[in-house]
Amino acid sequence: MSLPTMVDTLIWRVAATCPKTTVVNLSGGPVSMPWASQVPSIIQAWCGGNEAGNGIADVLFGDQNPCGKLPMSWPHEAQDDPTYLNFGNMQGRCLYGEDIYVGYRYYDKIGRAPRWSFGHGLSYTTFKLSDLVLKTSSNSGAKEQKFPQTKAVFRIENTGSVAGAEVVQLYVAALESNVARPTKELHGFEKCYLEAGESREVEILMDPYAMSYWDEIGENWCIEEGKYQAILATTSRDTEESLEALLTVHETTRWLGL
């Protein structure tokens, strides 16, 4: 993850001279940024191809509002990654020692924040989430939908002065479980484009997998009886802007798939 030493040194020296330095990073994945706290803004441009320069210029000069989100958790250093102790192979075998705790699930489990969370991404506007409600309807008449259908309904508002898009994520946490499970799991998302000052109601559907785990012994999916917490957020890290609602499953159910 490390950049060449002289690149880090260059950024430190430029930032020390010019407090309004913006760093534009072109890479296909996370790199170490020990100078991140010393610059006011960073643009992660990924690998944009032939038109990358024009796209970056549009963002830098404010002609386009950047609305991208990180598709991965961005660690501080390689040692923070869940695969660090078992990366590569041993005698021709590739070991996945992180088990189900990959990405944001790992950082949630150990209680340590990455440098930037899965789903993080700033823009030239701001958004506000409110009025989260879980609505459940019975689908007993539909053969392919034998489970109650739950959807998260909420309101999102563009509270800034320019148009932009926000990606809202829906996580589900099993509060009472007899098996080892992630602290929470992503089970839905919606990209919402709003004009400045616009507000609207949005729905995200939750399917039975949102409460289920795969039982290796029983060789089926299991929805455990108990309480589940729906978490609406814009990143995998809980913030003051996150919204929560409770859902109760009254009976344990096993099934083989949709």
Question: Secondary-structure element sequence?
Answer: HEEHEEHEEEEEEEEEE
How many individual β-strands?
14
Q: Report how far apart the termini are.
A: 40 Å
Tally of separate helices: 3
**Estimated structural class:** mainly beta
Average pLDDT reading: 91
- Indicate the low-confidence ranges by residue numbers: 140-145
Helix content: 10-25%
Brief rundown of the structure:
The protein has 258 residues and is mainly β. It has helices at residues 5-17, 52-60, 104-110; strands at 22-25, 41-44, 89-90, 93-94, 127-137, 149-158, 164-174, 185-194, 199-206, 212-215, 220-223, 226-233, 243-249, 253-255.
Tell me what the structure shows:
This protein is mainly β. Helices cover 11% and strands 34% of the residues. The protein has 3 helices and 14 strands. Strands 8-7-12-13 form a 4-stranded antiparallel beta sheet, with no helix packed on it. The chain has a 3-stranded antiparallel beta sheet with strand order 5-6-9, with no helix packed on it. Strands 10-11-14 form a 3-stranded antiparallel beta sheet, with no helix packed on it.
Structural features:
mainly beta; 258 residues; 14 strands; three-stranded antiparallel sheet; globular; four-stranded antiparallel sheet
